[in-house]
Amino acid sequence: MKIRFAALAAASLLAFPAMGGVIPGFEINLGLDAFFHYYREPGLMRNYGPQLGAYGSVAYSGLPHLRPSFEAAWAGGDVTYDGAYSDGTPLKGDVGNSILVLRPLLGGVFDFSLAGLENIRVIPYIGFGYRRLFNNLEDLGRGGYTREQIYYYLPIGLEVWLPLTAVPKLKLGFRAEYDHLLRGRHKTGPIVGFRGDREKRFTQDSGWGLLLSPRARYDISENLALTAELYFQYWDVDDSTRLRQGLYTWWEPANTTSETGLRLGVMF
Questions:
Q1: Domain ranges of the chain
Q2: Looking at beta carbons, which pairs linking 108-114 to residues 24 or more positions away fall under 8 Å?
Q3: What helix, strand, coil percent values describe the chain, rounded to 5?
Q4: pLDDT beyond 50 at 17
Q5: What's the chain's average pLDDT?
Q6: Which residue of 153, 174, 215, 249 shows the fewest CB atoms closer than 10 Å?
Q7: How far apart are CA 204 and CA 237, in angstroms?
Q8: Nearest of 197, 187, 114, 123 to residue 155 by alpha carbon
Q9: What is the DSSP letter of 49?
Q10: How far is CA 199 from the centre of its chain?
Q11: CATH 2.40.30.10 applies to domain 3-267
Q12: How confident is the model at residue 119 (pLDDT cuts 50, 70, 90)?
């Protein structure tokens, strides 16, 4: 999967605000998502490289002290695989990669003043997360395979927004979130060049994640704003269950993932 296809999908999302309209009670945010992806299985292999795509969110503000919302993001592009064959021979090359994230959330909204600052907004939230990674190691040829990881997880976080007195149209925010892995499902396709190999499925039930994100919002008008967000997403997942096929025992090793990115969007 090439970055140019991800860029085309991302750009098309930005056209939606002009086609839609302002929906009373809703905040809709659409934009571009770019980040550096680094996946590592210690002592075995690593994947690293840029990913480009789009994100969107919709939140409803018509309920007293409650804020239901839904977030979605997709990105893709080639990453570099750096590992080795089973005999120790180095193996390195570009492979297709894509990541999809879907998250329904429910937050509580609390507004207050503190130390001379007015209209401080604090939003504690909880929800459900779905994250799917697809990695096409078949691009490497012999020894390659397709790899799909799906995480079902529980996001628990806090979002804080501070208005700036000197620049009334500008608001600064910060999000901190802990992600508890509920269930991980892993599917590995047959290995290219390995006669008789079959698809393998594992589960990963132990792991956690962390999300840190400073944010900014600039209100152009009552119904239009520009948004920017830096973020760092981290995952730490333990060994999977084991599967025996013939003379071999297979499993997905413990791994870590870090993603450092930037999102630029339009809110209406």
A1: 3-267
A2: 108/65, 108/66, 108/67, 109/61, 109/65, 109/66, 109/67, 110/65
A3: 5, 70, 25
A4: no
A5: 89
A6: 249
A7: 7
A8: 123
A9: E
A10: 26
A11: no
A12: confident
Dihedral over alpha carbons 181, 235, 94, 189 (to 10 degrees)? -20
Cβ(204)–Cβ(238) under 8 Å?
yes
Flag whether the pTM goes above 0.85.
yes
CA of 138: how far to CAs of 55, 96, 145, 215, in Å?
Answer: 28, 9, 5, 38
Instruction: Tell me which residue has tokens 């003043």.
Output: 113
At 199, is the secondary structure helix, strand, or coil?
Answer: coil
Task: Let me know how long the chain is.
Answer: 268
Helix (H) or strand (E) holding 17: helix 16-19
Tokens of 211: 């999300």
Q: Which amino acid is residue 205, in one-letter code?
A: D
* Token pair belonging to 173: 């925010």
